[in-house]
Amino acid sequence: MADRFGQTLTYxxxxxxxxxxxxxxxxxxxGREFRLVLTTQAQRAEEARTSSLSSSDRSRPLxxxxxxxTLPGTEYGPDRGIRLSAVWLMHDxxxxxxxxxxxxxxxxxxxxxELLAVYDRSGTQVRAFTYDPQHPGRMVGxxxxxxxxMRYRYDDAGRVVEQLNPAGLSYRYQYEQDRITVTDxxxxxxxxxxxxxxxxxxxxxKELADxxxxxxxxxxxxxxxxxxxxxxxRTEYGLNVVSGDITxxxxxxxxxxxxxxxxxxxxxxxxxxxxxxxxxxYDERDRLVSETSRSGETVRYRYDDAHSELPxxxxxxxxxxxxxxxxxxxxxxxxxxxxxxxxxxxxxRFGQMTAVHREEGISRYRRYDNRGRLTSVKDAQGRETxxxxxxxxxxxxxxxxxxxxxxxxYDAWGKAVSTTQGGLTRSMExxxxxxVISxxxxxxxxxxxxxxxxxxxxxxxxxxxxTQRYHYDLTGKLTQSEDEGLVxxxxxxxxxxxxxxxxxxxxAEQWRYDGHGWLRxxxxxxxxxxxxxxxxYDDKGRLTGERQTVENPETGExxxxxxxxxxxxxxxxxxxxxxxxxxxxxxxxxxxxYLAGMKLGDTPLLEYARDRLHRETVRSFGSMAGxxxxxxxxxxxxxxxxxxxQHLNSLVYDRDYGWNDNGDLVRISGPRQxxxxxxxxxxxxxxxxxxxxxxxxxxxxxxxxxxxxxxxxELHPDSTLTAWPDNRIAEDAHYVYRHDEYGRLTxxxxxxxxxxxxxxxxxxxxxxxDSQHRLEFYTxxxxxxxxxxxxxxxxxxxxxxxxxxxxxERDLTGWMSLSRKPEVTWYGWDGDHLTTVQTDSTRIxxxxxxxxxxxxxxxxxxxxxxxxxxxxxxAEKLQQEGSEDGHGVVFPAELVRLLDRLExxxxxxxxxxxxxxxxxxxxxxxxxxxTQIEPVYLPxxxxxxxxxxxxxxxxxxxxxDGNTAWSGEYDEWGxxxxxxxxxxxxxxxxLPGQQHDEESGLYYNRNRYYNPLLGRYITQDPIGLAGGWxxxxxxxxxxxxxxxxxxxxxxxxxxxxxxxxxxxxxWDILSDTYDDMKRLNLGGTDQFFHCMAFCxxxxxxxxxxxxxxxxxxxxxxxxxxGLNMFGMYxxxxxxxxxxxxxxxxxxxxxxxxxxxxxxxQD
Length: 1162
Hints:
Protein name: RHS repeat protein
Distance between the termini: 38 Å
Family: Belongs to the RHS family.
Pfam families: RHS, RHS_repeat, TEN_YD-shell
Organism: Escherichia coli
Helix content: under 10%
Shape: globular
Keywords: Repeat
């Protein structure tokens, strides 16, 4: 047998004897020869009788009737009793001298010829089956290795009427004419109504456990043509009559998606409801040769010859070509990137990856047991992580290079019930449906969950007792959520897109979409102000601009506007961003987008040099960027790929990094001091030791088992507190804290030491929140009088738009009171990045490193300079001055657009022939019109580079001439310890994603406020348990972890890797680092959520909106998806074909490591 690529399968049949005509050998296209060992019933009977005679119970030998030599016939004909008993590998061209000494798989059978057990190549039984002796061939039970047996009971017609799953969900089946009723052990009932016969019976109606009903329609061939959901909405599927391929899908709102195929039934094009199109092209052998996305970028594939099934090269839209070399078995042997740098892969004889060799000498080695499970990973420095499993194949232990052991225990069905690391244990409890009903954290506190008949979460009680409830419509959309006293109603349009929400009857956010279905605007009221976010797109559906506006609550006057524009090059890379009122920021790249430099307008500011792994090795900044740059940062890496040093041409900021065997940062050395870090067995930061001339200080950090900060017993030996059961810290050495029913910090008061008389001069901090738990008002009071007050405005995505601060000052009469006029600060955003901070006197704008929250360039412009840039556009000037009576005229919108384009062409000195022709028709010339264009004023700007630590925390601001204009020293939690600021620069940035508020001492952290003194947030995580079991925690190892969005921790090393390999993700799975392995098995241990999706905006058809454009609940939408995909509803449900593909990709990632840890989202 040969396929279209010339690959063959050759079969060898027995010529004579009992096995005459049977296939007993197979040779595949790679030249491997397999022997299929077949046995007859007589051979198995003789072996069984012989075995019984040699057994310990010789008094009862097996009789001939108990294991007959022949089998009776079946309704399909005679049964010759020939069965496959083993498969052996007899020849392997790649490993001719290393053939396995045991069969690859082995099978045993009952005396009736039924499959009894399956054994893998290690000899381990992996499947077992039980049969009804009265009904040959009828399976009544089966089990997997290490799992309980599932049992089945049948009626007289041979139909399953009961399925019994020990410690799990059991089912009963009742059969009627065209109707099947399924009842589970929780007494939930589902009724299936069928139509058709002779192989065409289909379920046409389904009554679900909650009473809702869905319908399905089919054509004469039994193919699905329509589905009607529980709300009566109909989705139709158009089919090719001959092939059965789907040709169009029409959703209930009338939106249509069309599919096109070639003669080989290969998909060639998809036209989406918004009119955009994706395309695929194939060669004569139906191999994919090009793929064009909705946005127009094309990837091309080339093959070595007519017999190659796998591509030899891929060329992306940038023109960058990657090369792949494959083994005869279809394994990737070498991957060469667009720069000619190569990664090599090695495999063992069973096809398991054993080594990955990357450039710069970085290698990773893997070992497996005889069952094919990964048992160890070793890096180039010999650091080894080991893995252990139970009989069922569940990962039970991870032993890190330092010997630290993390263990996971499972129930009978493989669901994790507890994890233990460093003596601390988390546990989970499930109901019969496999749904998580309780979590127990390290403190012994519980969080409980309840579900409805369709396995949807309807109530969650947190570790602190906070209770949240959820209600859904017939189609499963969240329609009402309750959070203690807050009731939120969710409203959708006919396309299931969220349109608006109300909270306690008051309007909240509103979403507006255009005819393409793309999100155009989100708006809400904040402190009475209408705040909106507007989005623009190009004709390919790519985001081209985001504009934020704030309007006066009384007059509707525009108080603040901030716009960021984004442009794409011909290859589709978003390499040009125009911040509000700034020249364009252009990223200079090579290959598929690796960063090589940056320009502001026409001025080069940064240059990068990179190694063969595309890691940054040299960064140059200044007006002489390059070999004579005033600032030059050199980075080196360890053999394992960790950051080893960062040295400047100015020695004051040099840093060297030391790592332990686990990959934890244990030392940072600089010219002035060295810091050494100690960690607990769970990886939490336990101590910091600072060494300098005449200085040796050790600061301990103590936490309770769940990670809540305690007074360290070394510093406070009299403290008896050992845990905060509800995760709410009530006091520390300096303050007393109070929280409300939502877990929000509402009051912080100076703590009075024991024995000290109260003097009423204690300061009390009060915190007030809006219905979204965002800090809206803060005040600090002493002697009953406010010292400071501040109010905050937010956009509907939760981004802070403005703050107003009133400070206590002496008025003209000599009295101390709050200022009448507040200090106002406005904020502008690009997605989740705060890019603009504007006060009454100045505007500070920040450019970030691509793909990260590390600030890179600071641009400051005085407001006086900015005012000089105000000018009228050509269209505005002509409209204002074009009337003889002086009242002005109004041009049509099309004329305004034409004049704006013409003005741009004249300024660029590139006037098109089309524009010249139009001017001639109007009796005008380019020269004459150019005199009407107002000149552009270039304001004076101060430009600085952010010099940051390995996490992205700014250590210094460097001017273009290489001088330090500002510097700061921090502790590990972001507290500013020392500052040198001779030029009085405003530098509010702290840890990535954080901005310091001087009035409160808090750090605004995008979705929450962070208290650096406690190293935690003042409110609970908006995404609930998806961000970690401790809802207040900042990463408990802030040396290696950050949280730029205030939602969930991120590992610094992994984020750096993501930045470096941003355009090469397709092959990253083949070269994951030790840190990836560690996070894969030990990292995020949460698959749960505290509320449903904030919005359904992420369901948009690839609109190209930014993460923020999809609403605050982007992560919550993922939680909703994960709820179905990862078992929160009791089973793994594939919602669509695309989701199945994505899930398969995730499964590949896990299988590639050989690991499956149910506590980790794959």
